[in-house]
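Forgive a beginner's question, but might I ask you for the amino acids of a protein and the C-alpha cells describing how it folds?
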Amino acid sequence: MKGEQMNKRELADAVAESTGLSRSQAEGAVEAVAEAISKALAAGDKVTVPGFGTFDVRERAARTGRNPQTGESMDIAASRSAGFKPATALKQALNG
C-alpha cells in the first residue's frame, strides 16, 4: 500500500486478519479505539500508545491573519486541535 490511503474499513479488515476477529468485531474495535481517543482528547488528556506514539491537545492562540482574496486583516479565534507525536519505534519502522 505504498503511497496510498487506508480507510477505516481497510483498517478493520487488517485488524480482523491479524487478530482472528470477525470483520464486524474488528470494525467495532477500531471504532471503540477512535472514540476512546476522541473522548480523552476532548477532556484534555494525553493518550500514549507505547511503541506507536502520543496523541495530545494543542492550543492555538488567537491571532490576526489576512484574507488571501482581499488582503484584508481578519481576526482568527483561538482553537484547540489534536496533535500526534510518533514514538521512536514508529520512526525507526518508517525509516528502515
